[in-house]
Design a protein that fits this description.
six-stranded antiparallel beta sheet, 6 helices, two-stranded antiparallel sheet, alpha+beta, 8 strands, 27% strand
Amino acid sequence: MTQENKQQSSAQIDEQGRLLLPPWAQAFLSSAASEAEGEPVIIVPYFSAEIRLYSQANWNDFEEKLANGAEEERAIAGLVDMLMASIDEEYLEEDGSLHIPADILLDCKMEAGESVTITAEETFLRIRKLKKEEEGGE
């Protein structure tokens, strides 16, 4: 997926910590799940700036690359170990919403009621808070 054709949408985290994913994002997570029904979405807090959502299949591929010691992945193995302590698994609801655990929202300086952007990267969805100017604020 190139920079020019990345899919992106705005959404809002509701008061219960649920994020309603647009249909293209639901398809992104399920198409990568090797057609298996009911596979979890891996929720990874990424520093304090964003949340990353992986299908189980893409997360397994990432872990396999680390285990096989690909040089660029070895360089971030310490980071991954740190992240592994914070990851969570959740399942998409029938309406396409995904519950984001409160501790992950807190780690990423997000809270219920906030607007976010959802961007498709090559193997994951990136969730970031909307900046004030993107929300139409000052």
